[in-house]
Amino acid sequence: MSLTRRTLLTAGSVGLVLAQAQAATAQAENWPTPITSDNKLRIAMPAFASDPFFPADGSGDKGIDMELARGIAAELAVEPVFDRSAVTFDGMVKLLMSGQADLAIGKLSRTLRRGRSILYSRPYAMLHQGLLANRLNLARITQGKPPEQFIRDFSGDLGVIEGSSFATYAATTFPHAQLHRFAGWDMVVDAIRNGTIDMAYRDDFEIKKLMVDDPSMTVVARSITLTDKVDTIAIGVRPDNPHLAAFVDLYLDLARGQQVLSTDEIIARYRLRSKA
Fold first, then answer.
1. The total number of structural domains that make up the chain
2. Residues of the chain under the 50 pLDDT cut
3. Residue 38 and residue 137: Cα distance in Å, rounded?
4. What CATH code is carried by the domain that includes residue 210?
5. Nearest to 70 by CA among 37, 32, 105, 108
6. Which helix (H) or strand (E) segment is 230 a member of?
């Protein structure tokens, strides 16, 4: 074979390889992507803090949910943009429903009502539901009987956070209770302290965290864990993006090793952060 012919064949082969590479690159650029908004991942997160999940707006980027949000954005090779305008957990859901956010990552409980409007990832934390009871009121109501005997038929004053999953759960878990809705957890706790309400309804992590932060609460209140009632925490996804929902599940499986955090694990993490 002449040198000229060999050179031409070699040049032709290189050209073919380059053409195939360019075609593959062009095809990859046209592949569908889970992100539909200018290479930015719009993440709804509440304005308030819920340590160790997320800080208050403008107070840093530490926490379980912050790590999740930035990890998902990094794997998608996009910029995370946080929307901290929601003042309730339901407010995050509304941002997904309106298309203003792609994900809601902020200790968001799964509920059937919310599931009618948005998509959910698989849970990354599983808590139990719990009650915080005023001790004097509890003694008056139970008259010495174990609390377990009266809880299901409880007809007293029950406090919940407006716009939370527990405001939804209460109607079915405690159908006879007199429901009192508060704007925030601090207001609920104050109502327990002064005996305005008999019990408060929230996840057992937040109740145990309260006891860690303020041991004096054990004098006026006691916690009750509802071991048969769970509160699963997951990532909310806008309803028109099943591709993104599938990717988030894949991230939780592969990057997070299918880890589902428990109350004890989260409390341990919270204690470490409190000492730091």
1. 2
2. 1, 3, 7-12, 14-28
3. 55
4. 3.40.190.10
5. 105
6. strand 221-237
Residues 137 and 191 in one domain: yes
- Quote the CA–CA distance of 60 and 1 in Å, as a whole number: 69
Using alpha carbons, select from 232, 239, 234 the residue that is nearest to residue 116: 239
Look up the pTM and report it: 0.82
146 contacts: CB under 8 Å, gap ≥ 6: none
How many DSSP H helices and E strands does the chain contain? 12, 10
Does residue 198 form part of some domain? yes
Kindly report, residue by residue over 130-168, the tens digit of the pLDDT. 999 999 999 998 887 777 778 878 999 999 999 999 999
- State the residue range of the domain holding 90: 40-126+232-275
- Quote the tokens at residue 82: 């946080």
> Which two structure tokens, joined as six digits, stand for 5?
């012919």
The helix/strand/coil state of 148 is helix
